[in-house]
Design a protein that fits this description.
- The chain is α+β, with helices and mostly antiparallel strands.
- Among the domains are: about 150 residues, Beta-Lactamase; about 180 residues, Heat Shock Protein 90 (2-Layer Sandwich), CATH 3.30.565.
- The protein has 10 helices and 12 strands.
- Strands 2-1-5-4-3 form a 5-stranded antiparallel beta sheet. Strands 7-9-10-12-11 form a 5-stranded mixed beta sheet, covered by helices on one side. Strands 6-8 form a two-stranded antiparallel ribbon.
- A hairpin with a 4-residue loop joins strand 11 and strand 12.
- Helix 6 packs antiparallel against helix 7 and helix 7 runs parallel beside helix 10.
- The chain is rod-shaped and about 155 Å long.
Length: about 475
């Protein structure tokens, strides 16, 4: 399909032609009605004037008879102007007047009508002109015709009609040209979208739809599509990273399961060895089940909605419950929890999911804040849990005194199966922070990792009134 064919068959061009055609038809009808109405009004006005003049001539006839009427008609016919007169006898012979003959239109109508005429005494080459007149019988078999020349009005009406038709034609031409220009502009931008989609389908997920900065509907659509493409690229890259990490995080425990089962079968000690092997296999299986449950929960959070399960909750109460649960764990690791959670705050959220997210943050802080080789923290180290409010955002921050996370790794740490510990000797699946990020996104919020000087501080920001767009959490504009 050629560019011209695409242009002529495009929806904007067809719509422009349709609107243009409808407008042209409406304009033609309006102009025709206006011309007809103007001509009718002018003709009616002339006929009324003629009727008044006929009344005066009838009075002349009543006063002096046919001779008086003929004399008056002759006098008026001799005067220059647009007035037309004709008095004929029963045989149709002209007695007086400036019309050459009785118009056939008036002879048939016997009333007011348009007719074509030639003046009496003119040459045969004189062009016929338009006039309007009335024909009234006069006692004695005479017929009186009184008319007005309207050739100039008729020419004016023709000129106006031609001007209207020319205007409609010019308007249609300009509309068609404008439609072509609009269609070309729209098609160019749509073609850019098509080309971008083809490039993306070919595998280049970094491609984005170009924007012209006009801020119109197509520009806003391009911005939304670019944001969607950025999110898709992020998910695909995360999937690729998951595929790389899952080989280590799931294949290793599965291999251990097989090895333990095989070792138990080969051990000659019998039932006692089998029991010990099965116990270890169950522990490994439980760890795998927890990993898969976390993956399923994250998938449900990222693909679902919780609007119907959201209720007003007290974030301070959630923090208190999590702290009560993890305080013994922290003490066992040589740490202590410091809670700063003023009462009186309320937020619209899913209590269970927020509790799970805070628990994950506290669990991570306890797990990775240990300094000693025995897994216990230095004496006096603490984990702080703080509740605050910034504008209409509720912020829950969990800070530790551990080694922290390098700035360049903080965003990567929020992805699935990412474990910054290269040896991966500590227990875990690398899904804790990614689950917190999924909970935050589902509530319209976000999580950010900051420097706690020393250590790491994780800040969970959630809109006070539920998962509604917030300027501080908006996605960056795609280009």
């Amino acid at each position: 399909m050629t560019a011209l064919t695409r242009l002529l068959t495009s929806t904007p061009f067809r719509l422009t032609l349709a609107y243009m055609g409808a407008f042209a038809v409406a304009a033609a009808v309006i102009i025709a009605f206006a011309a007809w109405r103007a001509n009718d009004l002018l003709t009616s006005e002339v006929v009324q004037t003629l009727a008044a003049e006929v009344t005066g001539l009838r009075e002349q006839f009543e006063a002096g008879g046919p001779e008086r009427l003929a004399a008056v008609v002759g006098e008026r016919a001799a005067e220059p102007g647009a007035s037309l007169y004709l008095l004929v006898d029963r045989a149709g012979q002209r007695i007086a007047g400036n019309l050459a003959a009785l118009p056939q239109e008036l002879e048939a109508a016997r009333g007011g009508n348009l007719f074509r005429y030639r003046r009496a005494g003119g040459t045969g080459d004189d062009a016929e002109r338009w006039a309007v007149g009335v024909a009234l019988p006069v006692p004695g078999g005479l017929l009186l015709v009184v008319g007005r020349d309207i050739e100039d009005l008729h020419r004016f009406a023709d000129s106006m009609g031609n001007l209207g038709l020319l205007s409609i034609a010019l308007l249609a031409l300009l509309g068609t040209g404008g439609g072509l220009l609009i269609s070309r502009s729209v098609l160019r931008r749509i073609e850019a979208v098509t080309q971008t989609s083809r490039t993306i389908m070919a595998g280049d997920l970094s491609k984005r739809i170009p924007r012209n900065g006009s801020g119109d509907e197509l520009d806003r659509l391009a911005a939304s599509l670019n944001a969607m493409l950025a999110r898709i690229e992020e998910l695909v890259m995360a999937l690729r990273e998951v595929s790389d990490n899952i080989a280590h995080d799931l294949k290793t425990p599965l291999t251990r399961l097989r090895n333990r089962a095989e070792a138990a079968l080969r051990n000659p000690d019998g039932a006692a060895c089998y029991r010990d092997g099965l116990t270890k296999i169950i522990d490994e299986a439980d760890e795998l089940i927890r990993t898969f449950n976390s993956l399923l929960l994250i998938a449900r959070l990222e693909g679902g909605t919780i609007a119907e399960s959201m209720r007003p909750v007290d974030p301070a109460a959630i923090i208190a419950d999590v702290a009560e649960l993890y305080e013994p764990v922290a003490e066992q690791a040589g740490q202590r929890l410091e809670i700063t959670a003023p009462a009186g705050m309320t937020m619209l959220a899913n209590r269970e999911l927020i509790g799970q997210a805070v628990a994950n943050l506290v669990d991570n802080a306890i797990k990775y804040a240990a300094h000693a080789e025995d897994g216990r923290a230095k004496h006096g180290d603490r984990i702080s849990i703080t509740l605050g409010k910034v504008a209409d955002l509720i912020e829950i921050s969990v800070g530790d005194r551990g080694p922290g996370v390098a700035p360049e790794d903080r965003e990567r740490a929020l992805k699935r199966f990412v474990r910054l510990e290269e040896s991966r000797s500590r227990p875990g699946s690398g899904l804790g922070l990614s689950l917190v990020a999924a909970v935050a996104r589902l509530h319209g919020g976000a999580i950010r990792l900051e420097d706690n000087a020393p250590g790491l501080r994780a800040v969970l920001s959630l809109p006070e009134k539920g998962p509604y767009p917030h300027p501080a959490l908006a996605l960056p504009a795609a280009s």
